[in-house]
Specification:
The protein has about 450 residues and is an alpha/beta fold. The longest helix has 25 residues. It is globular, with a radius of gyration of 21 Å. The structure holds beta-D-fucopyranose. The site of beta-D-fucopyranose has 12 residues, from loops.
């Protein structure tokens, strides 16, 4: 396959999506912008973390990465060229508020205004993520996500951004993958601030939920038109065998990974079965809490297979993935996308759903020939269409990612883009998957 899919098949797939379906791609500020210290930007926790020897696989950082900050107009043209009708990007908190609160950095806002205006001029709908992992370092020094004040800091930041952009942006994502912020940052420690302590991770997760609620209220107060969502990383948890023990392990994996955030956001408090397992490290209850979501965003990459592990806190452990894998070592499992969409629709009935991220890393070369990603997209878009046929209110799909970019602690070792980036010259080359996406999105629109 070269990305030149037989046209009838491609049109048949595109035809399965309703009129008005949102054809998007997604990125995040730290992964693509570069210009880490330009025009008054403050440091983020990633700027600082990447300097620690050994924490980033290739020893590099997002200081320059794709240089999207300077190549903004070219990247906007690329998006238009790809036929996208929407673009999900994130605001770097420390670009607009270098100390995280207080002093405003006007050039930072000017950049995002240019970005939003450029999208609208090209007929592309902006979806803005307020927090995609790059906390201002100044706030980290005040306790970061462990600080009791952080919901208020986040709400102040949100209201400022919405006051600036809310006349042109309707769709807001408060937080990207709070599960990762909490557990990669504070339990496995592979993300900043590199802490390894489950009790801390649970406090951070709690503060993230409170920040979401405070942020959502601030967004709505600043713009009556605003629609508020959150992006959760969700994966089906499947048992390794038909045994009752493995079944229970899968229930706990689902509880800790998926229900831990879904239940509170839909007004049910923390899942009691998982709270009991956490025991003395469990956070305080979230009574009366509701995420008040206009839409739920799901980031989907793979499923997890788990088995019983009686000696562990939560009683389960993951099995190594099998079958066809992406370069991340993640199983390629499109059925899991349909499964998670149906399950969330059935169990939580969100008003609207978006796939706010889905995509795959493969070892692409500069020729941009990536048949495996074409196949990945084709099978996952099909799974999304199946879910729509089943009655799921799925309104859009954002492919991760527009560009190859800085993949967090894995540095530049993984490429997820529809567009290849040469990190030396910053040159962009549309891959076969980008051409496939263009055909699909164009036919779908
Ligand atoms: C998600 C992140 C995104 C990207 C993809 C591969 O967890 O939200 O920034 O790194 O994984």
């Amino acid at each position: 396959m070269t990305g030149a899919q037989p046209l009838p098949a491609l049109h048949a797939l595109a035809g399965r999506f309703p009129t008005g379906f949102v054809w998007g791609t997604a990125t995040a500020a730290y992964q693509i912008e570069g210009a880490w210290n330009e025009d008054g930007k403050g440091e983020s926790i990633w700027d600082v973390f990447c300097r620690i020897p050994g924490v980033i696989e290739d020893g590099r950082s997002g200081a320059e990465t794709c240089d999207h900050y300077h190549l903004l107009d070219d990247d906007l043209d690329l998006l238009a060229d790809l036929g996208a009708s929407a673009y999900r990007f994130s605001v770097a908190w420390s670009r607009v508020l270098p100390e995280g609160r207080g002093r405003i950095n006007e050039p930072g806002f000017a950049f995002y205004e240019r970005l939003v205006d450029g999208l609208l001029q090209r007929g592309i709908r902006p979806f803005v993520t307020l927090y995609h992992w790059d906390l201002p370092q100044a706030l980290q020094e005040r306790g970061g996500w462990l600080a009791d004040d952080i919901p208020a800091w986040f709400a102040d930041y949100a209201s400022l951004v919405v006051a600036r952009l809310g006349d042109r942006v309707r769709d807001w994502v408060t937080l990207n993958e709070p599960q990762v912020t909490a557990f990669a940052g504070y339990q496995s420690g592979v993300h900043p601030p590199g802490v390894k302590d489950t009790a801390s991770a649970l406090i951070v997760a709690h503060h993230l939920l409170l920040a979401h609620r405070a942020g959502a209220a601030a967004i709505r107060a600043a713009s009556s038109e605003a629609r508020v969502g959150i992006a959760l990383n969700l994966s089906p948890a499947h048992p390794a065998s038909a045994s009752a023990e493995d079944g229970e392990a899968a229930r706990m994996a689902d509880g800790a990974g998926n229900r831990w955030f879904l239940d509170p956001l839909f007004g049910r408090g923390y899942p009691q079965d998982v709270v009991e397992r956490y025991g003395e490290v469990a956070p305080p209850p979230l009574e009366g809490y509701d995420g008040a979501l206009d839409f739920l965003g799901i980031n989907y990459y793979t499923r997890n297979i788990v088995r019983a592990a009686p000696g562990t806190k939560l009683g389960f452990e993951p099995l190594p993935p099998e079958g066809a894998l992406t370069e991340m070592g993640w199983e390629i499992y499109p059925d899991g996308l349909r499964e998670i969409l149906l399950r969330v629709h059935r169990d939580y009935a969100p008003r609207e759903l978006f796939i706010t991220e889905s995509g795959a890393a493969f070892p692409d070369g500069p020729d941009g020939d990536d048949p495996a990603r074409v196949e990945y997209l084709e099978s996952h878009f099909s799974a999304a269409a199946d879910a729509i046929d089943d009655g799921v209110r799925l309104r859009g799909y954002f492919v991760w990612s527009l560009l190859d970019n800085f993949e967090w602690h894995l540095g530049f070792t993984k490429r997820f883009g529809l567009v290849y980036v040469d990190y030396e010259t910053k040159q962009r080359t549309i891959k076969s998957s980008g051409r496939f996406y263009r055909q699909l999105a164009t036919a779908g629109r």
